[in-house]
Write a structure and sequence with these properties.
The chain is of the alpha+beta class. It is 34% helix and 9% strand. It has a 4-stranded antiparallel β-sheet with strand order 1-2-4-3. A hairpin with a 7-residue loop joins strand 3 and strand 4. It is globular. The N terminus is likely disordered.
């Protein structure tokens, strides 16, 4: 009956942080949700580095031509949102050292600077791992097949992957 409301709720969903709710303005994307790399109305997309955004959009178009849907599960994040994710990771993994394997600190996060995107679904991750260097897009962490950065020029060689975000 109220199916039209679901996309609206996903857009405005927030989660709590010690100071105030983290929301769409912070780049928040709800767990299990995703956004189009073409939806530049969202801060998560609009605040990406323009060259990275162009590369991801071009790759998404070409993936679609190959029958592969590509979306982003997260992209740009505010420092506040990244800090919340990092603190949650410390709780989940039991130490700062272990948390840093999966979530960067706000001062080191490539998401905070707008220089990283997390891609989904798995078919798109696989497609981008095979074709990403044509756009300059590289998987940069061995333990995160969804995390891509503009790490080379189009057609260039991707740098060796780091083991994880702590490296």
């Amino acid at each position: 009956m109220y199916r039209w409301l679901v996309p609206l709720l996903l857009t405005f969903t927030t989660t709590t942080c010690a100071a105030a709710p983290v929301g769409v303005a912070d780049g928040f994307v709800a767990d299990g949700a995703h956004v189009s790399p073409f939806d530049t109305r969202l801060p998560a997309i609009a605040n990406l580095d323009p060259a990275l955004l162009r590369a991801v959009q071009e790759a998404a178009r070409d993936a679609a031509d190959d029958g592969v849907e590509m979306f982003l599960t997260t992209a740009w994040r505010s420092e506040r949102y990244q800090r919340q994710l990092y603190e949650e990771a410390i709780t989940k993994y039991g130490s700062e050292r272990e948390a840093r394997r999966f979530v960067s600190t706000p001062d080191r996060s490539r998401h905070v600077t707008g220089d990283a995107v997390d891609v989904g679904p798995t078919d798109a991750d696989d497609w981008l791992n095979r074709h990403g260097r044509a756009y300059g897009l590289c998987q940069t962490y061995a333990n995160e097949m969804w995390h891509f950065e503009l790490a080379t020029g189009p057609g260039g060689a991707c740098p060796p992957m780091r083991a994880d975000a702590s490296a």
